[in-house]
# Entry
Amino acid sequence: MQTKRYCYSCDLKNDSKLIEEYKAYHAKGKAWPEITKSIKDAGIVDMQIYLTGNRMFMIMEVDATFNAEKKAEMDANNHKVQEWENLMWKYQQELPWAKKGEKWIALEKIFQL
# Structure
Protein backbone atom coordinates (compact mmCIF):
# COMPACT_ATOMS: atom_id res chain seq x y z
CA MET A 1 0.00 0.00 0.00
CA GLN A 2 1.37 3.40 -1.00
CA THR A 3 1.07 6.13 1.62
CA LYS A 4 1.76 9.82 1.80
CA ARG A 5 3.09 11.69 4.83
CA TYR A 6 1.74 14.95 6.25
CA CYS A 7 3.50 16.81 9.08
CA TYR A 8 1.95 19.56 11.20
CA SER A 9 2.77 21.67 14.24
CA CYS A 10 0.66 23.22 17.00
CA ASP A 11 1.41 24.78 20.38
CA LEU A 12 -0.03 23.89 23.74
CA LYS A 13 -0.58 26.59 26.32
CA ASN A 14 2.67 26.88 28.25
CA ASP A 15 1.26 25.54 31.52
CA SER A 16 2.66 22.29 32.92
CA LYS A 17 -0.65 21.24 34.51
CA LEU A 18 -2.56 21.73 31.24
CA ILE A 19 0.17 19.93 29.28
CA GLU A 20 -0.10 16.91 31.59
CA GLU A 21 -3.91 16.90 31.19
CA TYR A 22 -3.53 17.06 27.41
CA LYS A 23 -1.07 14.17 27.45
CA ALA A 24 -3.50 12.12 29.56
CA TYR A 25 -6.22 12.58 26.91
CA HIS A 26 -3.78 11.25 24.31
CA ALA A 27 -2.32 8.35 26.32
CA LYS A 28 -2.62 4.92 24.71
CA GLY A 29 -6.27 3.86 24.73
CA LYS A 30 -7.52 7.15 26.24
CA ALA A 31 -8.53 9.11 23.13
CA TRP A 32 -12.27 8.93 22.56
CA PRO A 33 -13.16 5.98 20.28
CA GLU A 34 -15.22 8.28 18.04
CA ILE A 35 -12.09 10.34 17.43
CA THR A 36 -9.88 7.42 16.49
CA LYS A 37 -12.68 6.07 14.27
CA SER A 38 -13.01 9.42 12.47
CA ILE A 39 -9.25 9.45 11.89
CA LYS A 40 -9.21 5.94 10.43
CA ASP A 41 -12.40 6.50 8.39
CA ALA A 42 -10.69 9.44 6.66
CA GLY A 43 -7.88 7.25 5.32
CA ILE A 44 -5.30 8.08 7.97
CA VAL A 45 -3.30 4.89 8.41
CA ASP A 46 -1.03 6.10 11.21
CA MET A 47 -0.84 9.25 13.31
CA GLN A 48 1.79 10.16 15.86
CA ILE A 49 2.12 13.32 17.94
CA TYR A 50 5.44 14.39 19.47
CA LEU A 51 5.95 17.04 22.12
CA THR A 52 8.92 19.22 23.01
CA GLY A 53 8.26 21.89 25.62
CA ASN A 54 4.83 23.12 24.60
CA ARG A 55 5.30 22.64 20.82
CA MET A 56 3.75 19.57 19.21
CA PHE A 57 4.48 17.86 15.91
CA MET A 58 1.97 15.54 14.27
CA ILE A 59 3.00 13.05 11.60
CA MET A 60 0.26 11.35 9.59
CA GLU A 61 0.60 8.54 7.09
CA VAL A 62 -2.43 8.50 4.79
CA ASP A 63 -3.64 6.15 2.09
CA ALA A 64 -4.81 7.04 -1.41
CA THR A 65 -8.38 7.69 -0.20
CA PHE A 66 -7.34 10.57 2.08
CA ASN A 67 -8.55 14.05 1.17
CA ALA A 68 -7.93 16.90 3.65
CA GLU A 69 -11.00 18.88 2.55
CA LYS A 70 -13.22 15.81 2.87
CA LYS A 71 -11.77 15.10 6.34
CA ALA A 72 -12.55 18.69 7.40
CA GLU A 73 -16.12 18.31 6.10
CA MET A 74 -16.55 14.96 7.88
CA ASP A 75 -15.26 16.51 11.12
CA ALA A 76 -17.57 19.54 10.81
CA ASN A 77 -20.56 17.19 10.54
CA ASN A 78 -19.55 14.94 13.46
CA HIS A 79 -20.78 16.28 16.81
CA LYS A 80 -18.33 14.12 18.82
CA VAL A 81 -15.36 15.40 16.80
CA GLN A 82 -16.60 18.96 17.34
CA GLU A 83 -16.97 18.30 21.08
CA TRP A 84 -13.38 16.94 21.16
CA GLU A 85 -12.03 19.89 19.17
CA ASN A 86 -13.73 22.37 21.50
CA LEU A 87 -12.27 20.55 24.52
CA MET A 88 -8.78 20.57 22.97
CA TRP A 89 -8.89 24.39 22.65
CA LYS A 90 -8.61 24.41 26.46
CA TYR A 91 -5.05 23.14 25.94
CA GLN A 92 -4.02 24.24 22.47
CA GLN A 93 -3.13 27.69 21.22
CA GLU A 94 -2.49 29.10 17.79
CA LEU A 95 1.06 29.33 16.54
CA PRO A 96 2.18 32.98 16.31
CA TRP A 97 1.89 32.91 12.49
CA ALA A 98 -1.43 31.00 12.34
CA LYS A 99 -4.61 32.48 10.98
CA LYS A 100 -7.40 33.12 13.51
CA GLY A 101 -8.89 29.79 14.59
CA GLU A 102 -6.19 27.71 12.86
CA LYS A 103 -4.56 25.08 15.07
CA TRP A 104 -2.40 22.64 13.19
CA ILE A 105 -0.08 24.24 10.62
CA ALA A 106 1.54 22.18 7.85
CA LEU A 107 5.32 21.93 8.08
CA GLU A 108 7.44 22.83 5.08
CA LYS A 109 9.91 20.12 4.10
CA ILE A 110 13.30 21.75 3.58
CA PHE A 111 15.59 18.69 3.51
CA GLN A 112 15.45 14.99 2.66
CA LEU A 113 18.34 12.54 2.60
Q: What stands out?
A: The longest strand covers residues 4-12.
